Amino acid sequence: MVDGTFRLLMPQARNGAVRVALVVAPWLAIVALWYAVRASGLINPSLVPAPHAVLAKFSELVRGRLPLDVWMSTERVFVGVFLGVLAAVPVGFAIGWYRGVRTFVDPLINFFRALPPIALIPLVIVYFGIGEIAKVVILFYASFFAGVIVMVEGIGQISPIYVRVAKTLGASDAEIFAKVIVPLAVPHILTAVRVALGVAWATLVASELIAAQQGLGAMIQDASSFFQLDIVYVGIICIGLIALAMDLALRAATRRLVAWQDRIA
Amino acid sequence: MTADTLPMVSAMEGPVRLRFDELGVDFPTASGPMTVVDGISLEVRQGEFVSIIGPSGCGKTTLLNVVGGFVKPTRGVALLDDSPIAGPGPDRGVIFQEYGVFPWLTVRRNIEFGLKLAANARHAARSAEIVERYLSLMGLTDFADHFPKHLSGGMRQRLAIARAYAVQPEFLLMDEPFGALDAQTRTAMQDLLLQVLATEGKTVLLVTHSVDEAIYLSSRIVVVTARPARVRTVIDVPFAYPRSESVHEDPRFAALRAEIRVLVMEEYEAQARQSAPAAVRR
Known about the structure:
The structure holds 2 protein chains of 2 kinds.
Chain A: H1 2-14, H2 16-40, H3 51-62, H4 66-97, H5 99-114, H6 117-128, H7 132-156, H8 161-168, H9 173-207, H10 216-225, H11 229-257
Chain B: E1 16-29, E2 32-45, E3 49-53, H1 60-68, E4 75-80, E5 83-84, E6 92-95, H2 107-113, H3 127-137, H4 153-166, E7 171-175, H5 183-199, E8 203-208, H6 211-217, E9 220-224, E10 231-236, H7 251-275, H8 278-281
Parallel strand pairs in B: 3-8, 3-9, 6-7, 7-8
Antiparallel strand pairs in B: 1-2, 1-4, 4-5, 9-10
Helix pairs in contact in B: 2-3, 2-4, 3-4, 6-7
Protein backbone atom coordinates (compact mmCIF):
# COMPACT_ATOMS: atom_id res chain seq x y z
CA MET A 1 0.00 0.00 0.00
CA VAL A 2 2.81 2.38 0.90
CA ASP A 3 4.59 1.38 -2.31
CA GLY A 4 1.47 2.18 -4.30
CA THR A 5 1.27 5.62 -2.76
CA PHE A 6 4.87 6.31 -3.72
CA ARG A 7 4.32 5.17 -7.24
CA LEU A 8 1.39 7.54 -7.53
CA LEU A 9 3.33 10.46 -6.09
CA MET A 10 6.59 9.93 -7.96
CA PRO A 11 5.54 11.27 -11.39
CA GLN A 12 4.18 14.39 -9.71
CA ALA A 13 7.45 15.05 -7.91
CA ARG A 14 9.48 14.38 -11.04
CA ASN A 15 7.33 16.54 -13.25
CA GLY A 16 6.98 19.55 -10.99
CA ALA A 17 7.39 21.87 -13.94
CA VAL A 18 4.62 20.08 -15.84
CA ARG A 19 2.36 20.51 -12.85
CA VAL A 20 2.98 24.23 -12.66
CA ALA A 21 2.30 24.47 -16.39
CA LEU A 22 -0.97 22.57 -15.98
CA VAL A 23 -2.07 24.95 -13.23
CA VAL A 24 -1.13 28.08 -15.18
CA ALA A 25 -2.36 26.96 -18.61
CA PRO A 26 -6.14 27.47 -18.12
CA TRP A 27 -5.54 30.99 -16.78
CA LEU A 28 -3.37 31.87 -19.75
CA ALA A 29 -6.05 30.41 -22.00
CA ILE A 30 -8.67 32.71 -20.47
CA VAL A 31 -6.44 35.76 -20.99
CA ALA A 32 -5.80 34.66 -24.56
CA LEU A 33 -9.53 34.20 -25.15
CA TRP A 34 -10.13 37.63 -23.68
CA TYR A 35 -7.72 39.23 -26.18
CA ALA A 36 -9.23 37.11 -28.95
CA VAL A 37 -12.75 38.37 -28.20
CA ARG A 38 -11.48 41.94 -28.35
CA ALA A 39 -9.60 41.34 -31.59
CA SER A 40 -12.44 39.43 -33.25
CA GLY A 41 -14.68 42.49 -33.36
CA LEU A 42 -17.70 40.41 -32.25
CA ILE A 43 -18.13 42.81 -29.36
CA ASN A 44 -17.47 46.52 -29.51
CA PRO A 45 -13.88 46.81 -28.12
CA SER A 46 -14.88 49.80 -26.03
CA LEU A 47 -17.13 47.44 -24.04
CA VAL A 48 -14.29 45.00 -23.35
CA PRO A 49 -11.26 46.60 -21.69
CA ALA A 50 -8.04 44.83 -22.61
CA PRO A 51 -6.39 42.64 -19.96
CA HIS A 52 -3.34 44.91 -19.85
CA ALA A 53 -5.61 47.92 -19.35
CA VAL A 54 -7.32 46.15 -16.46
CA LEU A 55 -3.93 45.32 -15.01
CA ALA A 56 -2.87 48.96 -15.31
CA LYS A 57 -6.09 50.03 -13.57
CA PHE A 58 -5.39 47.46 -10.89
CA SER A 59 -1.90 48.82 -10.14
CA GLU A 60 -3.39 52.31 -10.05
CA LEU A 61 -6.14 51.28 -7.63
CA VAL A 62 -3.74 49.34 -5.42
CA ARG A 63 -2.14 52.68 -4.61
CA GLY A 64 -5.60 54.18 -4.05
CA ARG A 65 -8.88 52.83 -2.66
CA LEU A 66 -8.40 49.10 -3.35
CA PRO A 67 -6.63 48.02 -0.13
CA LEU A 68 -9.41 49.50 2.01
CA ASP A 69 -12.08 47.98 -0.25
CA VAL A 70 -10.47 44.54 0.01
CA TRP A 71 -10.13 44.91 3.76
CA MET A 72 -13.76 45.98 4.29
CA SER A 73 -15.16 43.21 2.12
CA THR A 74 -12.94 40.55 3.65
CA GLU A 75 -13.91 41.68 7.13
CA ARG A 76 -17.63 41.53 6.30
CA VAL A 77 -17.27 38.09 4.75
CA PHE A 78 -15.28 36.83 7.74
CA VAL A 79 -17.75 38.13 10.30
CA GLY A 80 -20.74 36.86 8.32
CA VAL A 81 -19.23 33.41 7.75
CA PHE A 82 -17.95 33.12 11.32
CA LEU A 83 -21.31 33.95 12.87
CA GLY A 84 -23.21 31.99 10.21
CA VAL A 85 -21.21 28.81 10.69
CA LEU A 86 -21.17 29.28 14.46
CA ALA A 87 -24.96 29.13 14.38
CA ALA A 88 -25.15 26.53 11.60
CA VAL A 89 -23.02 23.93 13.38
CA PRO A 90 -25.30 23.30 16.40
CA VAL A 91 -28.50 23.76 14.38
CA GLY A 92 -27.31 21.53 11.54
CA PHE A 93 -26.02 19.00 14.03
CA ALA A 94 -29.35 18.84 15.88
CA ILE A 95 -31.30 18.43 12.66
CA GLY A 96 -28.93 15.84 11.22
CA TRP A 97 -28.59 13.80 14.38
CA TYR A 98 -32.20 13.66 15.52
CA ARG A 99 -34.15 12.29 12.60
CA GLY A 100 -37.43 13.28 14.26
CA VAL A 101 -36.41 16.93 14.23
CA ARG A 102 -35.37 16.67 10.61
CA THR A 103 -38.80 15.78 9.20
CA PHE A 104 -40.41 19.02 10.31
CA VAL A 105 -37.45 21.40 10.17
CA ASP A 106 -36.27 20.37 6.67
CA PRO A 107 -39.05 22.19 4.75
CA LEU A 108 -38.41 25.30 6.83
CA ILE A 109 -34.70 25.26 6.03
CA ASN A 110 -35.35 24.72 2.35
CA PHE A 111 -37.89 27.54 2.30
CA PHE A 112 -35.44 30.07 3.70
CA ARG A 113 -32.49 28.74 1.78
CA ALA A 114 -34.30 29.30 -1.51
CA LEU A 115 -34.81 33.02 -0.86
CA PRO A 116 -32.18 35.06 -2.72
CA PRO A 117 -30.42 37.37 -0.25
CA ILE A 118 -30.88 40.29 -2.66
CA ALA A 119 -34.65 39.97 -2.26
CA LEU A 120 -34.26 40.44 1.48
CA ILE A 121 -32.44 43.76 1.20
CA PRO A 122 -35.54 45.98 1.62
CA LEU A 123 -36.48 44.11 4.79
CA VAL A 124 -32.92 44.14 6.11
CA ILE A 125 -32.79 47.92 5.63
CA VAL A 126 -36.11 48.31 7.47
CA TYR A 127 -35.04 46.18 10.43
CA PHE A 128 -31.27 46.70 10.61
CA GLY A 129 -30.74 50.08 8.97
CA ILE A 130 -28.06 50.80 6.41
CA GLY A 131 -24.95 50.41 8.60
CA GLU A 132 -22.36 47.63 8.88
CA ILE A 133 -24.83 45.35 10.68
CA ALA A 134 -27.17 45.24 7.69
CA LYS A 135 -24.37 44.03 5.41
CA VAL A 136 -23.23 41.38 7.87
CA VAL A 137 -26.84 40.20 8.33
CA ILE A 138 -27.09 39.46 4.60
CA LEU A 139 -23.82 37.53 4.66
CA PHE A 140 -24.82 35.75 7.86
CA TYR A 141 -28.08 34.69 6.25
CA ALA A 142 -26.34 33.24 3.21
CA SER A 143 -23.60 31.51 5.25
CA PHE A 144 -25.99 30.11 7.82
CA PHE A 145 -28.26 28.29 5.38
CA ALA A 146 -25.35 27.03 3.28
CA GLY A 147 -23.66 25.77 6.45
CA VAL A 148 -26.81 24.16 7.86
CA ILE A 149 -27.39 22.12 4.72
CA VAL A 150 -23.80 20.83 4.72
CA MET A 151 -23.97 19.93 8.42
CA VAL A 152 -27.34 18.18 8.13
CA GLU A 153 -26.17 16.07 5.20
CA GLY A 154 -22.80 15.31 6.78
CA ILE A 155 -24.05 14.44 10.25
CA GLY A 156 -26.87 12.38 8.77
CA GLN A 157 -24.27 10.20 7.02
CA ILE A 158 -22.36 9.34 10.22
CA SER A 159 -22.67 5.60 10.74
CA PRO A 160 -24.31 4.66 14.07
CA ILE A 161 -21.80 1.78 14.38
CA TYR A 162 -19.19 4.04 16.01
CA VAL A 163 -21.58 5.08 18.75
CA ARG A 164 -22.52 1.45 19.36
CA VAL A 165 -18.87 0.41 19.53
CA ALA A 166 -18.14 3.21 22.01
CA LYS A 167 -21.08 2.09 24.15
CA THR A 168 -19.85 -1.50 24.26
CA LEU A 169 -16.47 -0.19 25.42
CA GLY A 170 -18.22 1.58 28.30
CA ALA A 171 -18.43 5.17 27.05
CA SER A 172 -20.89 7.51 28.77
CA ASP A 173 -23.08 9.84 26.70
CA ALA A 174 -20.70 12.75 27.37
CA GLU A 175 -17.71 10.63 26.33
CA ILE A 176 -19.50 9.51 23.17
CA PHE A 177 -20.17 13.13 22.29
CA ALA A 178 -16.63 14.37 22.96
CA LYS A 179 -14.67 11.38 21.65
CA VAL A 180 -16.82 10.06 18.81
CA ILE A 181 -19.30 12.62 17.56
CA VAL A 182 -17.04 15.67 17.69
CA PRO A 183 -14.18 14.08 15.72
CA LEU A 184 -16.68 12.77 13.16
CA ALA A 185 -18.25 16.24 12.86
CA VAL A 186 -14.95 18.08 12.27
CA PRO A 187 -14.67 17.31 8.54
CA HIS A 188 -18.26 18.40 8.02
CA ILE A 189 -17.66 21.64 9.92
CA LEU A 190 -14.66 22.35 7.69
CA THR A 191 -16.76 21.66 4.60
CA ALA A 192 -19.49 23.93 5.97
CA VAL A 193 -16.94 26.73 6.36
CA ARG A 194 -15.71 26.21 2.80
CA VAL A 195 -19.19 26.23 1.30
CA ALA A 196 -20.25 29.20 3.45
CA LEU A 197 -17.17 31.18 2.37
CA GLY A 198 -17.97 30.52 -1.27
CA VAL A 199 -21.59 31.54 -0.85
CA ALA A 200 -20.63 34.62 1.19
CA TRP A 201 -18.23 35.92 -1.48
CA ALA A 202 -20.94 35.30 -4.05
CA THR A 203 -23.39 37.33 -1.95
CA LEU A 204 -20.95 40.12 -1.14
CA VAL A 205 -21.96 42.47 -3.96
CA ALA A 206 -25.62 42.14 -2.97
CA SER A 207 -24.81 42.94 0.66
CA GLU A 208 -22.83 46.01 -0.42
CA LEU A 209 -25.83 47.29 -2.37
CA ILE A 210 -26.91 48.66 1.01
CA ALA A 211 -25.32 52.10 1.06
CA ALA A 212 -21.76 50.84 1.22
CA GLN A 213 -18.99 53.43 0.81
CA GLN A 214 -16.15 50.92 0.80
CA GLY A 215 -15.84 47.32 -0.25
CA LEU A 216 -15.28 45.52 -3.53
CA GLY A 217 -19.02 45.35 -4.18
CA ALA A 218 -19.35 49.09 -3.56
CA MET A 219 -16.40 49.75 -5.86
CA ILE A 220 -18.02 47.70 -8.63
CA GLN A 221 -21.32 49.54 -8.25
CA ASP A 222 -19.70 52.96 -8.16
CA ALA A 223 -17.72 52.12 -11.29
CA SER A 224 -20.78 50.82 -13.11
CA SER A 225 -22.62 54.13 -12.54
CA PHE A 226 -19.79 55.85 -14.40
CA PHE A 227 -19.38 53.08 -16.97
CA GLN A 228 -15.82 52.38 -15.78
CA LEU A 229 -15.73 48.80 -17.00
CA ASP A 230 -12.02 48.38 -16.25
CA ILE A 231 -12.72 48.98 -12.54
CA VAL A 232 -15.64 46.54 -12.67
CA TYR A 233 -13.26 43.92 -14.07
CA VAL A 234 -10.67 44.66 -11.36
CA GLY A 235 -13.35 44.23 -8.67
CA ILE A 236 -14.68 40.98 -10.07
CA ILE A 237 -11.19 39.51 -10.46
CA CYS A 238 -10.26 40.54 -6.90
CA ILE A 239 -13.35 38.81 -5.46
CA GLY A 240 -12.55 35.65 -7.40
CA LEU A 241 -8.89 35.63 -6.39
CA ILE A 242 -9.55 36.23 -2.69
CA ALA A 243 -12.22 33.51 -2.62
CA LEU A 244 -9.83 31.14 -4.40
CA ALA A 245 -6.99 31.90 -1.96
CA MET A 246 -9.26 31.28 1.03
CA ASP A 247 -10.51 28.02 -0.42
CA LEU A 248 -6.94 26.81 -1.02
CA ALA A 249 -5.97 27.74 2.54
CA LEU A 250 -8.98 25.90 3.94
CA ARG A 251 -8.25 22.84 1.86
CA ALA A 252 -4.69 22.77 3.17
CA ALA A 253 -6.02 23.10 6.73
CA THR A 254 -8.50 20.29 6.07
CA ARG A 255 -5.74 18.01 4.82
CA ARG A 256 -3.83 18.58 8.05
CA LEU A 257 -6.78 18.38 10.43
CA VAL A 258 -8.49 15.33 8.97
CA ALA A 259 -5.57 13.36 7.59
CA TRP A 260 -7.46 10.22 8.61
CA GLN A 261 -10.08 10.60 5.92
CA ASP A 262 -10.06 8.28 2.93
CA ARG A 263 -10.97 11.00 0.54
CA ILE A 264 -9.65 14.46 1.19
CA ALA A 265 -11.51 17.48 -0.08
CA MET B 1 -10.45 -13.88 35.87
CA THR B 2 -8.16 -16.87 36.17
CA ALA B 3 -5.68 -17.41 33.40
CA ASP B 4 -6.45 -21.09 33.10
CA THR B 5 -4.41 -22.68 30.36
CA LEU B 6 -7.35 -24.82 29.29
CA PRO B 7 -10.20 -22.58 30.26
CA MET B 8 -12.95 -24.25 28.32
CA VAL B 9 -12.34 -27.87 29.21
CA SER B 10 -13.84 -27.31 32.63
CA ALA B 11 -16.69 -25.27 31.17
CA MET B 12 -19.39 -27.70 32.19
CA GLU B 13 -18.62 -27.12 35.84
CA GLY B 14 -18.36 -23.31 35.55
CA PRO B 15 -21.08 -21.08 36.97
CA VAL B 16 -23.94 -20.00 34.71
CA ARG B 17 -23.20 -16.47 33.50
CA LEU B 18 -25.89 -15.94 30.97
CA ARG B 19 -29.45 -17.25 31.06
CA PHE B 20 -32.28 -16.84 28.56
CA ASP B 21 -35.68 -17.91 29.79
CA GLU B 22 -38.46 -18.06 27.18
CA LEU B 23 -36.86 -15.04 25.55
CA GLY B 24 -38.88 -13.36 22.81
CA VAL B 25 -38.27 -10.22 20.77
CA ASP B 26 -40.78 -8.48 18.50
CA PHE B 27 -39.97 -5.67 16.11
CA PRO B 28 -42.62 -3.16 15.11
CA THR B 29 -43.33 -3.11 11.37
CA ALA B 30 -45.85 -1.31 9.20
CA SER B 31 -48.10 -4.40 9.35
CA GLY B 32 -47.89 -4.90 13.11
CA PRO B 33 -45.26 -6.50 15.35
CA MET B 34 -43.01 -9.14 13.80
CA THR B 35 -41.63 -11.86 16.05
CA VAL B 36 -37.91 -12.17 15.44
CA VAL B 37 -36.85 -14.28 18.43
CA ASP B 38 -39.23 -16.60 20.21
CA GLY B 39 -39.19 -18.86 23.24
CA ILE B 40 -35.43 -19.21 23.56
CA SER B 41 -34.22 -20.82 26.77
CA LEU B 42 -30.49 -21.31 27.07
CA GLU B 43 -27.73 -21.20 29.65
CA VAL B 44 -24.16 -20.22 28.97
CA ARG B 45 -21.54 -21.12 31.56
CA GLN B 46 -18.28 -19.40 32.42
CA GLY B 47 -15.63 -20.18 29.81
CA GLU B 48 -17.94 -21.69 27.22
CA PHE B 49 -17.65 -20.92 23.52
CA VAL B 50 -21.18 -21.05 22.15
CA SER B 51 -21.92 -20.63 18.45
CA ILE B 52 -25.34 -19.69 17.17
CA ILE B 53 -25.95 -20.95 13.68
CA GLY B 54 -28.99 -20.63 11.44
CA PRO B 55 -30.24 -19.13 8.19
CA SER B 56 -29.29 -15.51 7.52
CA GLY B 57 -31.91 -13.04 8.63
CA CYS B 58 -33.39 -15.48 11.15
CA GLY B 59 -32.82 -13.38 14.27
CA LYS B 60 -29.35 -14.55 15.39
CA THR B 61 -28.00 -11.03 15.45
CA THR B 62 -31.01 -9.86 17.45
CA LEU B 63 -30.24 -12.54 20.03
CA LEU B 64 -26.68 -11.25 20.26
CA ASN B 65 -27.95 -7.67 20.49
CA VAL B 66 -30.05 -8.66 23.50
CA VAL B 67 -26.89 -9.82 25.26
CA GLY B 68 -25.04 -6.73 24.06
CA GLY B 69 -27.75 -4.60 25.64
CA PHE B 70 -28.91 -2.97 22.40
CA VAL B 71 -32.28 -4.74 22.20
CA LYS B 72 -34.73 -5.21 25.08
CA PRO B 73 -36.63 -8.51 25.32
CA THR B 74 -40.33 -8.28 24.50
CA ARG B 75 -41.09 -11.48 26.44
CA GLY B 76 -39.18 -13.64 28.87
CA VAL B 77 -35.89 -12.67 30.46
CA ALA B 78 -32.22 -12.35 29.58
CA LEU B 79 -30.10 -12.51 32.73
CA LEU B 80 -26.42 -11.74 33.05
CA ASP B 81 -25.11 -13.07 36.35
CA ASP B 82 -28.73 -13.32 37.51
CA SER B 83 -29.66 -9.70 36.82
CA PRO B 84 -31.52 -8.43 33.75
CA ILE B 85 -29.33 -6.88 31.06
CA ALA B 86 -29.74 -3.12 31.36
CA GLY B 87 -27.66 -1.84 28.44
CA PRO B 88 -24.28 -2.10 26.77
CA GLY B 89 -21.20 -2.26 29.00
CA PRO B 90 -17.48 -2.92 28.95
CA ASP B 91 -17.95 -6.37 30.55
CA ARG B 92 -19.28 -7.54 27.16
CA GLY B 93 -16.94 -6.88 24.27
CA VAL B 94 -18.71 -6.83 20.92
CA ILE B 95 -17.02 -7.57 17.60
CA PHE B 96 -19.28 -6.21 14.88
CA GLN B 97 -19.51 -7.64 11.41
CA GLU B 98 -18.61 -4.24 9.96
CA TYR B 99 -15.67 -3.85 12.41
CA GLY B 100 -16.50 -0.25 13.43
CA VAL B 101 -12.82 0.67 13.65
CA PHE B 102 -12.61 4.42 14.40
CA PRO B 103 -11.20 5.97 11.21
CA TRP B 104 -10.08 9.18 12.92
CA LEU B 105 -7.75 7.41 15.35
CA THR B 106 -4.50 5.63 14.66
CA VAL B 107 -4.28 1.91 15.31
CA ARG B 108 -2.71 2.56 18.71
CA ARG B 109 -5.32 5.15 19.70
CA ASN B 110 -8.10 2.80 18.60
CA ILE B 111 -6.90 0.13 21.02
CA GLU B 112 -6.40 2.75 23.70
CA PHE B 113 -9.87 4.26 23.25
CA GLY B 114 -11.67 2.08 25.77
CA LEU B 115 -8.87 2.28 28.32
CA LYS B 116 -9.22 6.06 28.48
CA LEU B 117 -12.92 5.94 29.36
CA ALA B 118 -14.05 6.58 32.92
CA ALA B 119 -15.76 3.16 33.02
CA ASN B 120 -12.38 1.42 32.60
CA ALA B 121 -10.36 3.63 34.93
CA ARG B 122 -9.17 0.55 36.83
CA HIS B 123 -7.05 -0.44 33.79
CA ALA B 124 -5.71 3.06 33.16
CA ALA B 125 -2.44 2.52 35.02
CA ARG B 126 -1.59 -0.47 32.81
CA SER B 127 -2.91 1.20 29.66
CA ALA B 128 0.40 1.48 27.79
CA GLU B 129 1.32 -2.10 28.63
CA ILE B 130 -2.09 -3.44 27.51
CA VAL B 131 -1.92 -1.52 24.22
CA GLU B 132 1.57 -2.87 23.43
CA ARG B 133 0.48 -6.39 24.29
CA TYR B 134 -2.47 -6.39 21.87
CA LEU B 135 -0.52 -4.57 19.18
CA SER B 136 1.98 -7.39 19.13
CA LEU B 137 -0.54 -10.18 19.72
CA MET B 138 -2.59 -9.04 16.73
CA GLY B 139 0.49 -8.35 14.59
CA LEU B 140 -0.25 -4.64 14.35
CA THR B 141 2.93 -3.21 15.89
CA ASP B 142 4.32 -2.04 12.55
CA PHE B 143 1.09 -0.19 11.83
CA ALA B 144 0.63 1.30 15.32
CA ASP B 145 0.73 4.89 14.11
CA HIS B 146 -1.16 4.40 10.86
CA PHE B 147 -4.75 5.38 10.33
CA PRO B 148 -7.20 2.55 9.58
CA LYS B 149 -7.53 3.68 5.95
CA HIS B 150 -4.14 2.03 5.38
CA LEU B 151 -5.22 -1.36 6.80
CA SER B 152 -6.49 -4.43 4.98
CA GLY B 153 -9.77 -6.08 5.95
CA GLY B 154 -8.04 -8.72 8.06
CA MET B 155 -6.01 -6.08 9.87
CA ARG B 156 -9.11 -4.01 10.60
CA GLN B 157 -10.76 -7.09 12.02
CA ARG B 158 -7.70 -7.75 14.19
CA LEU B 159 -7.79 -4.14 15.33
CA ALA B 160 -11.49 -4.44 16.25
CA ILE B 161 -10.69 -7.55 18.29
CA ALA B 162 -7.69 -5.89 19.96
CA ARG B 163 -9.81 -2.88 20.87
CA ALA B 164 -12.54 -5.07 22.35
CA TYR B 165 -9.99 -7.15 24.29
CA ALA B 166 -8.13 -4.14 25.66
CA VAL B 167 -10.84 -3.32 28.20
CA GLN B 168 -10.65 -6.92 29.45
CA PRO B 169 -14.27 -7.97 28.89
CA GLU B 170 -15.41 -11.25 30.40
CA PHE B 171 -17.71 -11.88 27.47
CA LEU B 172 -16.98 -11.70 23.81
CA LEU B 173 -19.96 -11.29 21.50
CA MET B 174 -19.05 -11.83 17.87
CA ASP B 175 -21.42 -11.23 14.98
CA GLU B 176 -20.16 -12.95 11.81
CA PRO B 177 -16.73 -11.53 12.63
CA PHE B 178 -14.93 -13.24 9.77
CA GLY B 179 -17.73 -13.09 7.21
CA ALA B 180 -16.13 -10.40 5.07
CA LEU B 181 -12.64 -11.97 4.98
CA ASP B 182 -11.12 -14.17 2.30
CA ALA B 183 -10.71 -17.87 3.09
CA GLN B 184 -7.01 -17.72 4.05
CA THR B 185 -7.39 -14.68 6.28
CA ARG B 186 -10.47 -16.24 7.81
CA THR B 187 -8.59 -19.39 8.81
CA ALA B 188 -5.70 -17.34 10.18
CA MET B 189 -8.12 -15.24 12.23
CA GLN B 190 -9.86 -18.32 13.62
CA ASP B 191 -6.51 -19.75 14.71
CA LEU B 192 -5.53 -16.43 16.24
CA LEU B 193 -8.80 -16.30 18.15
CA LEU B 194 -8.28 -19.81 19.53
CA GLN B 195 -4.72 -18.91 20.47
CA VAL B 196 -5.79 -15.78 22.32
CA LEU B 197 -8.64 -17.59 24.06
CA ALA B 198 -6.21 -20.26 25.25
CA THR B 199 -4.26 -17.63 27.19
CA GLU B 200 -7.19 -15.52 28.39
CA GLY B 201 -10.32 -17.42 29.26
CA LYS B 202 -13.42 -15.69 28.05
CA THR B 203 -17.03 -16.65 27.59
CA VAL B 204 -17.80 -16.33 23.90
CA LEU B 205 -21.02 -16.07 21.94
CA LEU B 206 -20.45 -16.30 18.19
CA VAL B 207 -23.05 -15.78 15.49
CA THR B 208 -22.09 -17.45 12.23
CA HIS B 209 -23.57 -19.21 9.25
CA SER B 210 -20.46 -21.24 8.59
CA VAL B 211 -20.86 -24.77 9.92
CA ASP B 212 -17.11 -25.42 9.75
CA GLU B 213 -16.35 -22.28 11.71
CA ALA B 214 -18.89 -23.19 14.38
CA ILE B 215 -17.45 -26.68 14.87
CA TYR B 216 -13.83 -25.61 14.75
CA LEU B 217 -14.22 -22.86 17.33
CA SER B 218 -16.99 -23.71 19.74
CA SER B 219 -17.63 -26.00 22.64
CA ARG B 220 -21.37 -25.92 22.00
CA ILE B 221 -23.43 -25.15 18.91
CA VAL B 222 -26.98 -23.85 19.05
CA VAL B 223 -28.84 -24.42 15.79
CA VAL B 224 -31.69 -21.94 15.51
CA THR B 225 -34.75 -22.10 13.30
CA ALA B 226 -35.86 -19.82 10.47
CA ARG B 227 -37.51 -16.64 11.73
CA PRO B 228 -38.61 -16.40 14.45
CA ALA B 229 -35.39 -17.81 15.90
CA ARG B 230 -36.10 -20.70 18.26
CA VAL B 231 -33.64 -23.29 19.54
CA ARG B 232 -33.74 -26.20 17.12
CA THR B 233 -30.97 -28.31 18.67
CA VAL B 234 -27.98 -27.82 20.94
CA ILE B 235 -24.92 -29.88 20.01
CA ASP B 236 -21.83 -30.45 22.15
CA VAL B 237 -18.58 -30.36 20.21
CA PRO B 238 -16.40 -33.27 21.43
CA PHE B 239 -12.96 -31.73 20.77
CA ALA B 240 -10.78 -30.50 23.65
CA TYR B 241 -8.97 -27.16 23.62
CA PRO B 242 -6.40 -26.13 22.56
CA ARG B 243 -7.42 -27.10 19.04
CA SER B 244 -5.40 -27.10 15.89
CA GLU B 245 -6.41 -27.28 12.27
CA SER B 246 -5.93 -31.07 12.30
CA VAL B 247 -9.34 -31.17 13.98
CA HIS B 248 -10.77 -30.66 10.49
CA GLU B 249 -9.48 -34.13 9.49
CA ASP B 250 -11.04 -35.91 12.48
CA PRO B 251 -13.83 -38.25 11.28
CA ARG B 252 -16.06 -36.91 14.06
CA PHE B 253 -15.68 -33.45 12.50
CA ALA B 254 -17.07 -34.69 9.19
CA ALA B 255 -19.94 -36.50 10.91
CA LEU B 256 -20.80 -33.44 12.96
CA ARG B 257 -20.63 -31.22 9.90
CA ALA B 258 -22.97 -33.50 7.97
CA GLU B 259 -25.42 -33.58 10.88
CA ILE B 260 -25.47 -29.81 11.36
CA ARG B 261 -25.60 -29.10 7.63
CA VAL B 262 -28.81 -31.10 7.32
CA LEU B 263 -30.38 -29.14 10.16
CA VAL B 264 -29.27 -25.78 8.82
CA MET B 265 -30.38 -26.63 5.27
CA GLU B 266 -33.83 -27.59 6.54
CA GLU B 267 -34.10 -24.20 8.19
CA TYR B 268 -32.98 -22.42 5.03
CA GLU B 269 -35.73 -24.29 3.17
CA ALA B 270 -38.25 -23.33 5.85
CA GLN B 271 -37.18 -19.74 5.43
CA ALA B 272 -37.51 -19.93 1.66
CA ARG B 273 -41.10 -21.18 2.10
CA GLN B 274 -41.81 -18.29 4.47
CA SER B 275 -40.70 -15.67 2.02
CA ALA B 276 -42.34 -17.33 -1.01
CA PRO B 277 -45.49 -15.63 -2.36
CA ALA B 278 -48.70 -16.58 -0.55
CA ALA B 279 -50.18 -18.32 -3.61
CA VAL B 280 -47.21 -20.66 -3.87
CA ARG B 281 -47.26 -21.35 -0.17
CA ARG B 282 -50.78 -22.74 -0.44
